[in-house]
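FORM 12-B: Structure-to-Sequence Request
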């Protein structure tokens, strides 16, 4: 893919390195040359000094042929303006923005930005989940939703029941079941046993309901 990133801080530079290492064509734009020099280590893409909201700079970056545009600066106004230029002027198919202030996330959605990532919300959610649910493996932010992946040990009333008879919320699914160190692909007729480990994927809003259904929360 051909990807343009504006903002060469810690987030933008690391993202550029990761995408470049995955054999994507990456251009990173920043107004500060010193930041771009720091990104050169471990990054073999193109660096451009300039303002990512400027159409001439975007032209120079090859925006007309970009597949993805990502705004990662620490200024929400800059990120929003740059995303609008990318979407409305250059018709880039996938436009993603970092949102620093959680209260402004809805504004980005209202303006049809394809996806947003709010580090503040993600970190707070991770801490909350680590405190409340010790079985949580990871939290993934996707288009404004927090998706949880958990490792839940089956016990209580869920034991001896087929998945079709367990009232899991529709916003959740059991991706796999680990039994005696073997991984099983579950079907609706899979019967859960005491001590089975279910790898569960769900939206964070139904966490309590998921655990209650599987017998791990009263």
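FORM 12-B RESPONSE
SEQUENCE OUT:
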């Amino acid at each position: 893919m051909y990807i343009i990133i504006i903002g060469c801080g810690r987030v933008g530079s690391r993202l550029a390195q990761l995408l470049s290492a995955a054999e994507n064509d990456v251009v990173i734009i920043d107004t500060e040359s010193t930041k771009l020099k720091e990104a050169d280590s471990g990054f073999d893409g193109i660096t451009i000094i300039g303002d990512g909201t400027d159409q001439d700079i975007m032209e120079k970056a090859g925006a007309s042929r970009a597949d993805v545009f990502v705004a990662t600066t620490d200024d929400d106004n800059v990120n929003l303006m740059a995303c609008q230029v990318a979407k409305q002027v250059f018709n880039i198919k996938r436009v993603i923005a970092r949102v620093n202030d959680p209260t402004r996330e809805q504004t980005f959605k209202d303006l049809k930005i394809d996806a947003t990532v709010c580090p503040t919300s993600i970190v707070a959610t991770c801490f909350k989940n680590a405190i409340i649910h010790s079985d949580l493996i990871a939290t993934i932010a996707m288009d404004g939703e927090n998706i949880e992946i958990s490792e839940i040990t089956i016990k209580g009333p869920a034991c001896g029941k087929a998945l079709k008879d367990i009232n899991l919320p529709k916003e959740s699914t059991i991706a796999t079941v680990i039994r005696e160190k073997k991984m099983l692909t579950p079907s609706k007729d899979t019967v859960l046993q005491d001590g089975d480990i279910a790898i569960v994927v769900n939206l964070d809003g139904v966490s309590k309901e998921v655990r209650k259904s599987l017998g791990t929360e009263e």
